[in-house]
Design a protein that fits this description.
It is built from ten helices and four strands. Helix 2 crosses helix 4, helix 4 packs across helix 9 and helix 7 packs across helix 8. The longest helix has 18 residues.
């Protein structure tokens, strides 16, 4: 994350049976309140993933007017916001050419037990955590530089959740060392849960967008990919050589 953007070194991005929205163990889908029909001012936001501007209608009783820094501080303090995120015709739900599928699987396989543990503790769908982790590993890798940055303690955001420890490390009264994988996953899961609770309609693409860009009001490419990963669960399918390699290092952790 870079000040709320789950990015590494300037990038555009901080196994179980599938769970469905609307279940006690999964994400709760809420019906978004309609936009106000009163004559409210309009403003435009320039989105980093395209060169166009999209209009957003502010509603007084929503928190979309908050800046990114204000949203981050509120979420870190355990405050539940009331955010509405619009669809975007420009969001790309396809995987980019530089996707490293095997690397995304590597992180999910390696940390599956911790994903299950902290998802259960925070009452969040573990597949949502897997989808975020998979996307960060598969598309936020920046070659070997992410790994080297983590290795020497110099990365702006840390794997496996690709979260900015400097920004989010002090969360709701507790300090987390994001260079320690277990604390990284615990922190990332808590942040995701707080973001889920703060969205009016917490679908995977909206949660993934807020994870990537905490000040966003429109679904972006990263959020779109999180939804694609959540729905297709690419960590479940692997080529034979991938399966043998992953099971050699981590055993059969797939559930």
């Amino acid at each position: 994350m870079i000040a709320g953007h789950m990015a590494r070194f300037g990038s555009d991005s901080s196994f179980g049976a599938s769970s469905s929205f609307g279940t006690t163990s999964g994400l709760q889908t809420q019906t978004p309140a309609p936009w106000s029909t009163s004559a409210t001012p309009r403003y435009t936001t320039s989105t980093p993933w395209n060169n166009q501007s999209e209009q957003v209608t502010p509603v007084p009783w929503r928190d979309n007017y908050l800046t990114e820094a204000q949203r981050i501080q509120a979420l870190k303090n355990g405050q539940q916001l009331n955010l509405y995120m619009q669809d975007s015709q420009n969001a790309n739900y396809e995987w980019p050419w530089y996707t490293m599928n095997w690397l995304g699987k590597y992180y999910v396989y390696k940390h599956n037990n911790d994903i299950e543990k902290y998802a259960m503790q925070n009452s969040i769908d573990p597949d949502l955590v897997r989808a975020v982790m998979y996307n960060e590993g598969a598309t936020g890798h920046k070659g070997v530089f992410n790994y080297l940055g983590d290795l020497i303690g110099a990365s702006g955001s840390q794997m496996p959740m690709n979260i900015q420890g400097q920004t989010w490390g002090d969360f709701n009264g507790k300090h987390y060392d994001s260079y320690i994988p277990q604390q990284n996953i615990e922190l990332g899961t808590k942040v995701l849960k707080q973001m889920q609770n703060s969205l009016n309609n917490p679908t995977p693409d909206r949660i993934g967008t807020l994870w990537n860009e905490t000040g966003a009001n429109n679904i972006n490419d990263v959020g779109a990919r999180v939804k694609t990963a959540y729905e297709t669960k690419p960590w479940l399918g692997e080529k034979q050589w991938e399966q043998k390699l992953l099971e050699f290092f981590f055993g059969n952790k797939k559930k």
